[in-house]
Amino acid sequence: MVDECEKDIRRCFDAGAERVSIDFTEGRLANKNDSRNPWTGRDMLQDFIDLNNRVLDRFSADERRNIGVHTCPGGDMDSVHSKEVPYEKLLNHMFKLNAGYFLIQCASEDDREKVYRLCGENSREDANGVAQVCFLGVINPLSPDVETPEHIKNELVTAAEYIPVERLGATDDCGFSPFSRDEKPRHGSPDFARDVAMQKISARLEGARMASEELGV
Ligand SMILES: [Zn+2]
């Protein structure tokens, strides 16, 4: 399995991908005692981290700069599977993955400052030769409300109190999935969801630009 995962990642780079992100949505779910997913009660987070590190260890520090990990509590059909699991149960461990960057759901959290603090405390300047960049989620794809650039800027400026700016970035909480027939109950039609997604991405770019200006980077 490790061989095949390595092959997948190398083929993405060979095909021209600048970055390859590994979906780790099972990370937070692993801490949930969910009767519908019996494996979740087996305390397997560390096993997942060890297994993913076996894949990451196949790559040099230079390559791992562009190999990242995405975490979220689920995002299909405007719904979640593990948002009720305390985030620290994941964030206290996730950065042991020797990845170069992390795409971290955060916009939909009630206590976002706590997430910034946990990322600042746990992300590493040196993960086997690579500095870990935290891309914090500033956009919630589960909601049709479009975030303002001002709001996004303020979130990033707050995050910068906890995370060094050279290791801080902005992302969306998860994929948008408003392709053609994905059900987005809170959005109405996929066409509407697609338009909303574009507005949200534009707001993120503008908010990140404003934050860079304010932070002088
Ligand atoms: Zn996701």
Describe, in plain words, how this protein is organized in 3D.
The protein is globular and about 40 Å long. It is 41% helix and 12% strand. The chain has helices at 2-14, 26-29, 45-56, 61-64, 88-94, 112-122, 149-159, 190-215; strands spanning 20-23, 67-71, 101-104, 133-139, 168-172. Bound molecules: zinc ion (ZN).
* Class based on secondary structure composition and strand pairing: alpha/beta
CATH architecture: Alpha-Beta Barrel
User: How many beta-strand runs?
Assistant: 5
Which ligands are bound?
zinc ion
CATH topology call = TIM Barrel
Q: Whole-number average pLDDT?
A: 94
- Radius of gyration of CA atoms, rounded to a whole number: 17 Å
Helix/strand order, N-terminal first: HEHHHEHEHEHEH
Q: How big a fraction of the residues is strand?
A: 5-15%
State the end-to-end distance.
Answer: 41 Å
| Strand order, largest beta sheet | 1-2-3-4-5
- CATH top level label: Alpha Beta
Task: Give the fraction of residues assigned to helices.
Answer: 40-55%
The overall number of domains is 1
Which regions have little confidence, pLDDT < 50, spanning 5+ residues?
A: none
Largest sheet: 5 strands, parallel
Backbone shape = globular
Number of helices: 8
